[in-house]
Amino acid sequence: MSDIPSSVAFAAEDVAADWGVLSDLPGNPLMWVLIISELLVFGALLLGFAVARLLHPAMFQTGQASLNVALAGVNTLVLITSGYCAARAVQVRSAGAEKGVRLSRPWLLAAMGLGGCFLAIKAVEYADKAAHGWGIETNTFFTLFYLLTGFHAMHVVAGIIVLGIVAWKNTVDNLETGAAFWHMIDLVWLLLFPLVYLLR
Amino acid sequence: MMTFPLEDGQAWGRRLIRAWTVLALLTVVSVAAAVAGGLHGRSSLLAVLVALAASFIKARQVLDHFLDLRRAGSGWRTVFTALLLVILVGCLALYAVAEWRV
């Protein structure tokens, strides 16, 4: 039992809960700091990709022509469906303590499974590139392609682990925070996909 | 400051389905535009504009409905819109310069 007077404990809690302008955002404010940071990092990488394309137009045209647009489109559908499942998990969790936990877990498992599908399709894509002898050191295009998509795929792996943890420790706060991380991965892909695969 | 009232579970679920439908349709449209609108492995200007506009709308759907940014104040929504536009318009400008140089 703590011997701290309750008035002091409440005051400390109030200070801890004051996130300034971040308090306006739904969910955990620290997750929004991460979302903004990731958007800035991937935004800079994508602009760097566009600059490299400007400097090496022929190399990028050949490289982008080797990418499978349809497969990447299917992967986009897989990821946004996974994001939908994560959002539904948060929605049904609001049904209450026991019922919410019971209803949210299948949605989380579906989100994780679709995340696994995304990685499997990405592995097929990488295997195809490897079969043609196109690796990370082939040229600037493939270096950036593997760095961008590989960095994103590592986030997907981390996101699946995060969803597994919040499915286990299933509180409303944990679920909202874990789902927000997953949606951030979705958001980054929605910017990466057209710039790498469609603008050729 | 929350500007939207709390909604019941069914309305929330319907809103998420609408958002997913928009995301899926725009993905199909942008891929179809890229595949059908290209010539000699290069995208047409229309396909490029469709892809970038679809990307912007899809990112806003994820922010507003999956991440519930619509419940935040207009200031934060403006910040994220500006960030998305800087990235996408910047890439469009660099793409346009590259095409002009070819």
Overall average residue pLDDT of chain A: 90
Query: Looking at the structure, what is the overall shape of chain A?
Result: globular
CATH topology of chain A: Four Helix Bundle (Hemerythrin (Met), subunit A)
- Gyration radius from CA atoms of chain A, angstroms: 21 Å
Percent of residues in beta strands of chain A: under 5%
Tell me, rounded to a whole number, the average pLDDT of chain B.
88
Which stretches of chain B of 5+ consecutive residues score pLDDT under 50? none
Number of helices of chain B: 3
Instruction: Describe the main β-sheet of chain A briefly.
Output: none
What is the count of distinct domains of chain A? 1
What is the overall silhouette of chain B? Answer: flat
The total of beta strands of chain A comes to: 0
Order of helices and strands of chain A, N to C?
HHHHHHH
CATH class label of chain A = Mainly Alpha
Descriptive overview:
The complex is a heterodimer of chains A (200) and B (102). Chain A has 7 helices and no strands. Chain A has 200 residues and is mainly alpha-helical. Chain A has one domain: Four Helix Bundle (Hemerythrin (Met), subunit A) (Up-down Bundle), CATH 1.20.120. The radius of gyration of chain A is 21 Å and the shape is globular. The N and C termini of chain A lie far apart (65 Å). Chain B is mostly helical. Chain B has one domain. Helices cover 76% and strands 0% of the residues of chain B. Chain B contains 3 helices and no strands. The radius of gyration of chain B is 17 Å and the shape is flat. In chain B, 38% of the residues are buried. The chains are: A mainly alpha (200), B mainly alpha (102). The interface between A and B is large, with 51 and 54 residues.
